[in-house]
Amino acid sequence: MSISLLRTLILYTAVMAAVRIMGKRQIGELNPSELVITILISDLAAIPMQDLGIPLFAGLVPIVALVALEIIISFAALKSRTFRRLLNGQPAIIIRKGQLDIEKLQQLRLTTDEIIETLRKQNVCSVADVKYGVIEPDGTLTVILKQPQQPVTAEMLGLTPKDTGLPLVVISDGKLVHRSLDLLQLDARDIENRLRNQSIALADVFLMTLDDCGNTFIQRKAGI
């Protein structure tokens, strides 16, 4: 039992490391080669995990080989546009100026029901509202609306909204997050001064976020 548990932990760690090395993209955004390699890695890890008669090394070697192959393929795709298009495909325009491209839909084997469903998920009521609809290489549908249907922006209204930056967690459950402070080029004293101005103790803060524009959000711990 202990050997089986140890092998499971080792293989789990190896697969997690492999996924981290291959990148941060989500499953829905994997290109075909990444998806195939991810499936193969999971299958290869399951075999020695279930069969104790197979040497652990025999399961780890193919995983390392597949990760190395994926890195080589990714590097080649980065350097060669032709190879990248061959590997991942290219975007396909299926909607032009409010009209479906029937021939392109047939090539991609997409039904009108699938297109309408995807548009609804993007809060688009009608194909007629779409100037261009593009199927990306990862299978997602990108929609560019016609001018009258585009959302109103502050620029259109002649407004200048308050500037905002990327909010970073600087306090989590009463403890400072030093990596966020380094990114904001602040130190613990700066945060303590901000809290002191609002008569709040560091230990009483459940969450505090701060961006590079000075916008702050503070939530105290429950019962305080």
Verbal overview:
- The protein is α+β, with helices and mostly antiparallel strands.
- It folds into 3 domains: 2-86, no CATH class; 92-149, bsu07140 like domains (CRO Repressor); 168-220, 2-Layer Sandwich (CRO Repressor), CATH 3.30.240.
- The protein contains 9 helices and 8 strands.
- The strands form 2 sheets. The protein has a 4-stranded antiparallel β-sheet. The chain has a 4-stranded antiparallel β-sheet with strand order 6-5-7-8.
- The protein is flat, with a radius of gyration of 25 Å.
Walk me through the topology.
Elements: H1 2-22, H2 32-50, H3 56-79, H4 81-88, E1 92-96, E2 99-100, H5 102-108, H6 112-121, E3 130-135, E4 141-145, H7 154-157, E5 168-172, E6 175-176, H8 178-183, H9 188-197, E7 205-210, E8 216-220
Antiparallel strand pairs: 1-2, 1-3, 3-4, 5-6, 5-7, 7-8
Helix pairs in contact: 1-2, 1-3, 2-3, 3-4
> For the largest beta sheet, what order do the strands appear in spatially?
2-1-3-4
The Cα radius of gyration reads 25 Å
Termini Cα gap: 47 Å
Low-confidence blocks of residues: none
Structural class: alpha+beta
